[in-house]
Design goal:
Layout (H helix, E strand, L loop, with lengths): L2 H6 L25 H20 L3 E2 L2 E2 L1 E4 L4 E4 L2 E3 L4 H22 L2 H5 L2 H17 L2 H9 L4 H26 L5 H9 L5 H21 L1 H7 L2 H8 L6 E4 L1 H4 L24 H4 L20 H13 L6 E4 L1 H6 L3 H8 L2 H22 L4 E7 L6 E2 L5 E11 L5 E8 L5 E3 L3 E4 L3 E11 L7 E11 L6 E10 L1
Antiparallel strand pairs: 1-2, 3-4, 4-5, 6-7, 8-10, 9-10, 10-14, 11-13, 11-15, 12-14, 15-16
Length: 471
């Protein structure tokens, strides 16, 4: 390795220089290439899901609805109640381990391709380019004094941003209140104050984040950029510049002196900087601002094609691969290391357990409350009676009739109705009286068992313990 190359090699570290410097507006140049196509594919996939899923009906109800008023979550035919908070905890654990795994393998891939901040920034920048033009035209327009043309271009851009933001805010709120009801209330100008507040709140939030904050969100507000260094190791795939091949930089001249030092493949065109959405120079090494969007790879590959040199001057690689000159097979081999295998095993185990739990989940929950006004009473037939309130929650998408039985004390029986009916995805409370002959059990509290079972559905049954008080 030459001395010039050694001087150009910089360690891959998190660079915090200038973290709080005054913002310089980033004018991003458009780029076409392999990774750009993947990025836009994920934009279409995520937004088709987000904008469309709330309009799809499933069993006569919105397919995905986190109904805050009813305190129920409807997800593709499944109904989750507050008592199912364990599934939310499991989802958060799965998301955390998935993030650990993806970061350990490929760095900030989520940030570069699927993060909402990245997705909506891409959409807003696309609108900006269509209205104001490419990077040089936008820079020239901003430098000009206000004119009629500039006013209308800016107005058209911000109006388009506002339309996207309002529709997104409306859609987001539509996941927490039935979207068709929300749309009707908006069209009839009958939307309540809180509904209007949240639609406007999320709209303004998106408008600011994707339209103005952009890279500031990634640099200053997102905690992921701060702790990514802890999750990386020398075998993590990151976007890297190959200094051994690229240095020294410089433009090639047709009549260059044969005795002049040989230049590297980097022609110092700075296009990799111009296409970066956070405005960094990847040739300075890994920085916390890098979101791994790979726009610089597409840009550099395009330049390499034009100058007739091989692609890959900027590429996905690892710190060890650059230092030890790994082949593609060696890089792949080192991706399967103890850390990634451990994350994968834990993640797989949690997903399998969660899937099994959901598949065998009984769509019935019962809460039993003892009557607090009296520990017991004596019935007309001289038997000892205890009064209970059974709250039966039918978490299925179909109505069910349930039979109620009690056991635990010899001769214990129910007084009154034994069969109850509960509509789909709802709950009802029933007053139940259990009676037993005096002396059939010891004085004080005695354990009993309520059996609640759906008629014609043997698998839908629960058994709840409670106590029967004998005088």
């Amino acid at each position: 390795m030459s001395n010039e190359v050694k001087k150009a090699v910089k360690p891959i570290v998190i660079n915090t220089d200038g973290l709080y410097e005054k913002r310089k507006k980033v004018y991003v140049r458009s780029v076409k290439g392999f990774f750009d196509k993947w990025r836009w594919a994920l934009v279409f996939i995520t937004q088709a899901w987000f904008y469309g899923m709330c309009w799809i009906d499933w069993g006569g109800r919105q397919a995905v609805l986190f109904h805050l008023v009813e305190r129920k979550f409807y997800i593709l035919g499944m109904v989750f109640w507050p008592q199912d908070a364990i599934y939310l905890a499991i989802l958060l654990v799965i998301s955390a381990y998935a993030l650990f795994l993806v970061t350990a393998i490929g760095g900030r891939l989520f940030c570069g391709y699927a993060c909402p901040q990245t997705v909506y920034t891409e959409i807003f920048m696309w609108i900006e380019r269509k209205i104001e033009g490419e990077r040089p035209a936008r820079m020239k327009l901003d430098a000009q004094p206000m004119s009629t043309r500039k006013f209308w271009l800016k107005f058209a851009k911000h109006a388009s941003w506002a339309v996207v933001a309002l529709w997104t805010g409306f859609t987001f709120v539509g996941y927490f209140t039935p979207i068709k009801e929300l749309a009707h209330s908006i069209l009839t100008l009958s939307l309540d104050g809180w509904g209007l507040f949240w639609v406007l709140f999320y709209s303004v939030f998106l408008y600011m984040m994707a339209g103005f904050m952009r890279e500031q969100m990634c640099k200053y507000l997102c905690p992921y950029a701060r702790f990514q260094g802890v999750m990386f190791d020398p075998d993590t795939l990151i976007i890297t510049y190959d200094p051994e091949r690229g240095e020294p930089r410089g433009l090639r001249k047709k009549n260059a002196d044969p005795e002049a030092p040989k230049l590297g493949d980097c022609i110092d065109c700075n296009i990799c900087v111009q296409v970066c959405p956070t405005g960094i120079d990847i040739r300075d090494g890994l920085q916390l601002e890098c979101i791994a969007c790979a726009a610089c790879i597409d840009a550099c590959d395009e330049v390499m094609d034009k100058v007739g040199t091989p692609r890959g001057l900027i590429r996905y690689s690892t710190e060890n691969a650059l230092a030890k000159r790994y082949s593609a097979r060696d890089i792949l081999k080192h991706l399967l290391r103890p850390r990634t295998l451990l994350y994968s095993s834990i993640l797989l185990a949690i997903i399998v357990a969660a899937t099994w739990s959901l598949a065998t989940r009984i769509p019935l929950k019962v809460d039993i409350l003892r009557d607090r006004s009296a520990l017991y009473r004596v019935g007309d037939d001289e038997r000892i009676e205890n009064v209970f309130t059974l709250r039966v929650m039918n978490t299925d998408e179909a109505a069910h009739r349930y039979s109620i039985n009690v056991s635990g004390i010899d001769g214990i029986d129910l007084v009154g109705e034994r069969i109850v009916e509960v509509p789909a995805a709802s709950n009802k409370s029933f007053l139940v009286v259990a009676a037993v002959e005096e002396g059939a059990a010891p004085k004080g509290s005695n354990k009993i068992l309520f059996d609640i079972q759906a008629m014609n559905h043997d698998t839908i049954a629960v058994h709840e313990k409670t106590t029967f008080f004998m005088p």
